[in-house]
Specification:
The structure holds two protein chains of two kinds.
Chain A (H helix, E strand, L loop, with lengths): L8 E4 L2 H10 L13 H10 L7 E5 L4 E4 H11 L6 H11 L6 H6 L5 E7 L2 H4 L14 H17 L21 E3 L10 H4 L8 E7 L3 E4 L6 H18 L8 E4 L1 H10 L3 H11 L1 E3 L19 E3 L8 E4 L7 E5 L10 E4 L13
Parallel strand pairs in A: 4-5, 8-11
Antiparallel strand pairs in A: 2-3, 4-6, 6-13, 7-12, 8-12, 9-10
Chain B lengths: L2 E4 L23 E6 L5 H14 L5 E6 L9 H7 L4 E5 L3
Parallel strand pairs in B: 2-3, 2-4
Classes of the chains: A alpha+beta, B alpha/beta.
């Protein structure tokens, strides 16, 4: 496929010159970028069989179109190889759905990041890891995919700090926030399957998310007691940050999953338990300095999850350690997690035969 | 030997909107406030309301609140705003 690129181009002295050129224009996240040459950008577009001007979606609030060429340029800058690009495209398709409220999530003072969760065979094809340091710099694939999301926000939708991005604090996930589920070492259906993606299909799930809140409980093997620690952290988030119900992600590493497996607890049992336990009364706000907004509503009970189905339970993390994490939603259900299959397009033409 | 690289930005230019004509006076006018509905809006906009009526002799102050403070105002609010002489889009963070 030959792709006619439409972007303005610059002829610079060398790659070093390109670094300063991009930094000086505010087109980076502060780290070095891979110079987006036409050859590298075309390779990404060819990989997904998309013409340069293919519209990935339109940001609903500001009515800004996002096309494949601009996404590919930013993906190359982030360090993506062509094989990483389908996950970037699919994540953006998900982010541009109305229910994700991309503008609100990226402009808010709340400072959330966009968590991308990978499922299916694409994880292995691109070398995404799900074990050690999964919420850190675990591997090349998840690092560059997450970074591509952020660079594209900065450059295509002007989500720069102080411009559209009005975050008071932000968090490190705003550099890159992408993980892959450990499907091989889990007895559960994958997160994507639990969200109606057919088994065998690769998929991305996006969540407007706060920073991970790590927990530890390696002093019991009882599922109820282990999950009580997760639920306590969810309640703490409800008291200290946001009381509203939404999609909470729970990252459960192998050690806790093994205790669940032995006890016969599956995804549904875990979600049902957390749905029941992760609740607070509004009056609890008075214990953390927020008594002025309790008013006469102190007896109202709030649940972290609107329903058990709103839990995003992800099997991921290193093989040892009684740790886990909850990742809270940005702001209740104002932004909803979205899952899309990678490469699935109901109205796409098949690639032309050579 | 040079390297050719591409512009990563949208490159789109947004047409500047024409500002509404300024009012010479607020006296006898209808002023609408579109609130984002956050906690701080109640006291703040009540004060603005009082100032508009007492200091500027505004005839009527209408307060409308968005259902989602992170999303645009509903179409009904925008439609209603067409009948106002002045609209204030207000935050109450």
């Amino acid at each position: 496929m030959t792709n006619a690129l439409n972007s303005q181009y610059f002829d610079l002295e060398d790659a070093g010159d390109a670094q300063e050129f991009y930094h000086s224009r505010g087109w980076t996240d502060g780290f070095p970028i891979v110079p987006p040459t036409p050859t590298a950008v075309e390779a990404c577009l060819d990989w997904v069989h998309m013409p340069a001007n293919e519209i990935i979606g339109i940001e609903p609030v500001r009515q800004q179109a996002v096309d494949a060429e601009k996404l590919a340029i930013n993906a190359v800058m982030a360090g993506c190889l062509p094989m990483h690009f389908p996950a970037v495209v699919s994540a953006w398709m998900a982010m541009l759905k109305d229910e994700f409220l991309l503008h609100g999530t990226t402009a808010s003072t709340g400072g959330c990041a966009i968590l991308v969760i990978l499922n299916g065979s694409i994880r292995q094809e691109i070398g995404a890891r799900s074990d050690f340091n999964v919420l850190g710099s675990s591997d090349r694939a998840t690092s560059v995919i997450g970074r591509a999301i952020r660079l594209a926000l900065i450059n295509i939708l002007q989500v720069s700090p102080g411009a559209i991005d009005r975050s008071t604090l932000g968090h490190p996930g705003k550099i890159s926030y992408c993980i892959a589920e450990d499907e091989e070492n889990s007895d559960w259906p994958s997160l994507a399957e639990s969200r109606d993606i057919p088994k065998g299909a690769s998929a991305v799930t996006v969540l407007a998310a706060g920073a991970p809140r790590q927990i530890m409980n390696e002093w019991t093997i009882k599922p109820e007691e282990i999950l009580d620690t997760y639920a306590a952290e969810m309640r703490a988030n409800m008291r200290n940050y946001s009381i509203w119900s939404g999609n909470y992600a729970v990252i459960m590493p192998a050690q806790h999953r093994e205790h669940m497996r032995v006890a016969g607890w599956n995804r549904n049992e875990i979600a049902n338990y957390l749905f029941e336990k992760a609740r607070i009364k509004r009056s609890e706000w008075s214990t953390v300095g927020k008594g002025s907004v309790v008013r006469e509503k102190g007896d109202i009970e709030y649940c972290a999850l609107p329903s058990p189905d709103h839990l995003l339970l992800v099997a991921a993390g290193g093989p040892a350690g009684g740790f886990g994490a909850i990742i809270p939603p940005w702001l209740g259900m104002k932004s909803q997690a979205v899952t899309v299959a990678i490469g699935a397009c109901v109205d796409c033409e098949p690639p032309a035969a050579n | 030997m040079t390297i050719r690289v591409l512009n990563p930005t949208s490159e789109s230019t947004v047409a500047a909107l024409e500002p509404a004509p300024r009012l010479k006076s607020l006296e006898g006018k209808t002023v609408g406030i579109i609130s984002n509905g956050k906690e701080g809006t109640a006291g703040f906009f009540a004060h603005i309301d009082r100032l508009l009526r007492e200091r500027y002799r505004v005839a009527e102050v209408i307060l409308r609140t968005k259902s989602n403070y992170s999303a645009p105002a509903e179409d009904e609010i925008i439609d209603e705003a067409r009948n106002w002489d002045l609209a204030i889009s207000g935050l109450g963070d």
